[in-house]
Amino acid sequence: MEKHRHLADYIKNHPENIGKVVDFDAETDRLFQLDLTAANKELTTGLINDTDLFNSWVIDKLAANKCRYGVGGYLEHRTIYAFSSHFDTEDEPRRLHLGVDIWGGAGTPVYAPLDGIVHSHQDNNHIGDYGPTIILQHNLDGLILYSLYGHLNRESLLALSVGMPVVRNQQIARFGEIEENGNWPPHLHFQLMFDIEGRRGDYPGVCKFSEMEKWQQNIPDPGLILQFPKAVNID
After folding, report:
1. Residue 79's closest CA among 48, 38, 45?
2. Nearest to 61 by CA among 86, 81, 42, 37
3. Choosing a second label site near 83 at 20 to 30 A (CA), which of 11, 53, 64, 117?
4. How far apart (Å, rounded) are the C-alpha atoms in residues 95 and 98?
5. Bridge partners of 132?
6. E strand or H helix at 225
């Protein structure tokens, strides 16, 4: 877990180097944690199989609680992936979420929270997949860290090139519409990885629950970077 300690120490010792992923004012903005597990009985099969209905459910939750974003997901064992064969395997289906989702309106700006370069990008254009995706590479005092941004709009990919430098708080993308983001209600999938394992423009964001410990070694909690306050519905 040496890399996990290195990352935590870097964030603690260099708070000035940590920027935002989305616009958020802790003084005025509120967050609502969306429970996407089997414990949430509102998530009927009919709701998760109808993206427009699912999107209305998210919008209503945020409006009713006066929240700017919905958040959640790191190591959450979710039921919602049953709607797409993208998450099926021959034995155990993939249901454990490895990033943090930030739910908000299509067109919401996305920013690079750290200095770095564009590692890769591509449109993972499959039902249930990321849709347009960007991966950045960062060097934190010798620790190589990758950050992934999924469910973007296609326009976000047009001005990018591999190796292009990015700086902290630079806008790099926007949330995509349902029709372009893998058929999801508009949101951002934000994920961190120590080892990209030779992949380009893609990296698993959902794994088998039985393999949680293995994946957790390579994928730290994105909350370390986001530094969001508690959601209004969490004690």
Report:
1. 38
2. 42
3. 64
4. 10
5. 123
6. helix 223-226
Q: Using one digit for the tens of pLDDT, what is the confidence trace for 19-48?
A: 999 999 999 999 999 999 888 999 888 888
DSSP strands (E only) in the chain: 31-33, 69-72, 96-97, 100-103, 109-111, 116-124, 131-140, 143-150, 165-166, 171-174, 187-193, 206-207
User: Residue 115 in contact with residue 168, Cβ under 8 Å?
Assistant: yes
pTM above 0.90, yes or no: yes
φ/ψ of residue 61, rounded to 5: -60, -45
**Placement of tokens 């591509």 in the chain:** 122
Query: What is the tens place of the pLDDT at every residue in 157-215?
Result: 998 999 999 999 999 999 999 999 999 999 999 999 999 999 999 999 998 888 888 99
Interatomic CA distance for residues 201 and 220, integer angstroms: 19
Long-range contacts of 177-181, Cβ-Cβ distance < 8 Å, separation of 24 or more? 177/106, 177/153, 178/51, 178/52, 178/55, 178/106, 180/131, 180/132, 180/153, 180/154, 181/130, 181/131, 181/132, 181/151, 181/152, 181/153
Write down the mean pLDDT value for the chain.
Answer: 92
